[in-house]
# Entry
Amino acid sequence: MTLAAFALQPGHGIAVLYPEIGEPYRSVFAKIIEGVEEQARGRVTSIAIGPGTNTQDLAADLRRQETRVVIALGRNGLKAASGLDRDMGVVAGGVLSVPEAEGRNIPVHSLAPDPALLFARLQALVPNVRRVLVVYNPGQNGWLIRMAREAAGARGLELVAYDAPDLRTALKNYQDIFAAIDPKRDALWLLQDSVAAEETTVLPLVLQETWSRNVALFSSNVAHVRRGALFALYPNNAEIGRHLGSAALAYLAAGSHATRGVTPLRAVLLAVNIRTAGHLGLNLPARQGIDLVFPEQ
Amino acid sequence: MISVSTFLRDAAFRKQLNVTVTIGVMFFALASSLLTSWQGSRQVRQTLQEQGRQIAETLARQSTLALVFASPDNASEAIRTAMSFPDVTRVEIRHLSGRSLVVRGRPEGAATDGPLPDADAREAYLEAETEEFWRFVAPVLSRADDSPYEIVERKEEVLGFVRVEQSKATLTRVLAYIFLANLAISVVFAVLFLYVLGRLAARLTRPITDLSVVMARAEKGETSVRASLTGPKDIRDMAKAFNNMIAALEERELALRESRASYREIFDSVNEVIFQTNARGEWELLNPAWRQVTGIAIEDAVGKPMASLFHDEERATVEQMYSLMQRGVERDCRFEVRFTRRDGSVGWLNVAQHVRNDESGAFAGTSGILDDITERKLAAERMASLNLELENRVRLRTAELEASNRELEAFSYSVSHDLRAPLRAIDGFSRLIEEDYADKLDDTGRGYFARVRSATQRMSQLIDDLLNLARITRATMNRQPTDLSALAADVLKELTEGEPGRRVEAEIAAGLVANVDPVLVRVVLDNLIGNAWKYSAKRDVARIAVGMETRQTAQGSERVFFVRDNGAGFDMAYADKLFRPFSRLHGTNEFAGTGIGLATVQRVIYRHGGRIWADAVVDGGASFYFTLPGL
# Structure
C-alpha cells in the first residue's frame, strides 16, 4: 500500500511504517502488521515507506491523523521515523539491531533470537555441550555477544567469541577454530552477520568443516538450517506484531515508554535439520516442539 | 560472348526459363548460405562470448577464498575447471591492486601488465578482442545480500578480479562448418529443385513447342494445319485461338480467291479497257478489251509510253494531263481524246483515270478506264449536222412567216381601217333616213333601219376587237412584278360605276402578284371579270370572286389564278370552242359580245408562258383558271 493510495482515518493514534519491499520480506512485514492490528484492535494505520516517500509530507499526514506513536518496521521504517517530530513516540521492530545511541531512546524489538533461548535449546538437543564458539562482527552483533556471555554463564556454558572486523579475519578465525575444535564438547554458533556468516565464502567453509568434523552447528538464522546447520530459532512474526502493538498501546496509555533499548527476540519458533541431527547421532525429542523440519518432506 | 538481349531474343522459351531459374536458384542458394552463416555466426559468437563471460564469472565467484587468503591453492580447482574449456587459453586471478595471484595458460597474455579493470563493474564483461581471442574480466566480490532487517546497508566488497582469455579457434571452425554445411545443403536442394523444375518445365513447354511446330508449318505455307488441344488451359486456349485464326485465314483466302476470280472475269469480259500505268507513264496492266479496241497486242503495249496510243495532235494534251497528276495538282482527270488503232484508223476514247499512291504516299502511276466512244462521237457529229440544218430551215421559215404575218397584219389593219369608212357612211345615212324620213316610213321600215344601224355598230365593234387582237399579238412584252389584286379591283370599280344599279357581291383575294406585262394582263382581267359581270347580270345577287389556289402537279406545286361567277355558265361539251375567235356559246340577243375576248385572253396568257382553261355548269356559274409566271 503506498502513501498516496492510503486513506487516513483520524483518531487511530498508532501508525505502522513499513518498507515497501518485495517477497519474501513483504509477507514477514504483513504478518507483523497483522499482529499489531490484532493487539491494537484495528486502531492502526499502516503506511508503506518507499524510496519516494517525503518525510515532511509523512509527518504532516501523521499530525493530521493525530498519530501519537509509530511502530517503525525495518530499516526504511526506522529511517522514516527518525525524521518525525520528537514528541512522537517510536517503537522499533523488524530489525536485528540499531546503533547503540539510537537504541537508548526507544524500545527496539530485535529479530535476533535471545541467546538464552538458543543455549537452552542447544543444551536440550546436545546435552554434552560445554563450550560455544562464535565469530562476530562487533559493529553488528557486539550487543548480542554481551547478552550471550551472561546467558551462557547462567547456563553453565563457556562462550568463546572471536571478533572479525572483516572477511579475512573471519575466515582466519574459523581456521583457528577448526584447528582446535573438540566435537564432543564444543558447538559452533552462526549469527546473522554479513561478515562472520558471509554466505558465499564463509558459510560453505563452515558447513563443510562442521559436517566433516561432526561439530554441532546452530544458528540465529533459519536459512542456515536449510543449508545444513543443526537448528535455529526464528521469529514468530505475528507474535512480534502483538508485542509491538502492546508497546505502542502502553505508550499511548502512559505517554512515554516503559522500557527502552534493544530487546532480543523471544517470540521464537524452532527449525531443525533432522539429517544433520542424524549425522551427529543425536536423539531428537518428540517432534511436537519443532516448528519447521529440514530437509522439507 | 552472347549478350543478354540476344539470348532473350534468340533462345527458346524453355532454355530461357532453365537458365534464368538456374541462375536465380544458385544465387539464392549462395545468398541464403551467406545469410544463414552470418546469422549463425552471430549466434555462435554470442554463445561463445556468453560462455567466456560465464567462465569468468564462475572463476571470480570461486576465487574469493584464494584472494582472501592470498592462496592460489584455494582456486586451483576453479582454475583447472576454467582451463578445461577447450577455448580458454589463459586465466589470471589478480588482487585489486593488479598484483597477480595466479596466472595460467599462454605465457604471452597481452594483459599481464595491462590497465586495471573497471572498478565499478559488478559483473563480467569483455575487456578486449583481437583476431585470435576475447579477453573477459570479472570482479571478485564478497557477496552482500542486503537485508531490510539490518540498519546498515550491506555493500559488496571488491577483492580483486579475474581475467579469462578465450580463443576464437572454435568460432572460426564453426563458422567455416556452418557456411560449408549451408552451402552444401543449399546446393543439394538447388540441384533437386532444378531437376524437378526441369521436368516440370519440359511438361509445361511441350504443348508450347508442339504449337510452335504447327505454327512453323503454317508459316511455310502448309494448308489445313491444326494444333492439337492439349496441355494446360492457357496453352489450349492459345491453340484454339491459333486454329480459329487459321480457319479465318483460310476462309479469307477462299473469299479472296473468289473475289479475284470474279474480278478477273469482269476484268476480262468488259468492253471498256481497264488499265494501269506506272510512275513513268508507261502501260503496266491492260485487260483483253485493249486488243479489241486498239487492235494492238497487250504484250506489245505494256512498257510503252501511254501517250504513244493517242493521236499525234492529242499527245501534248495527254502528257500535260499526266504531268498534272504526277505533280499532285490533279487527282482525277477525265477527257475525250482521239487515238490511232493498229490499222491506222482513228477513233475516240473517253479516258477516266485517277492517281495511284504507293505505301509511302508517293505517286505510283494511274489507273482508269478507256471507253471507246467513236460511235457515239460520230453519231453526235451527225446529230449536230442535222440540228444545224434544221435550225437553218426554221430560221428561213420563221423569216417567211414573219414577213407573211406582217403582210397579213398590214392587210388586216388596212382592211379594218378601210371597212370603217363605208360602215360610217351606212350608219350616217341610216341615221339621216331615221331622222329626216321617219314620217315617210311605216313601222316596218323604221324597224329595218334600226336593225341596219345595230348591225353596222356591231361590225364596227368587231373591227375594233380584231385590231385589238392584232395589237396584242404584236405588242412588245414588258414584264414586271404586278399586283393582280389591285388590277382586278380597278376593273370591278369601273364596271360598278358603269352599272351602279346592280347588286354584285365581289370578293378579291389580297396579294395576288405575278411577273407579267401589266397592260396585257389588264386586258385579260377586263375580259374575264367583264364576262363574269355580263353573264351574271340575270342574277338577283351576282357573286364574282377573283383568287388564287395552289395545285400539286408532277413537276411540283403550281399557282393557279381564277375568276369565278354564279352566272349563266355553259355546257362543257362546247368547252373546246371557248377560246376560238368569233365562237360564241350564247346568242347576241341574250348576251352581247363579239367572240374575240377569250381568244385575246388566251393569246395574252400564252405569250406569258401560261395556260388557261374553264369549268362551268349550265346556269350554275363558270370558273376560268389560268397560270402566270411567279416573281
In short: The mean pLDDT of chain B is 86. DSSP finds 14 helices and 17 strands in chain B.
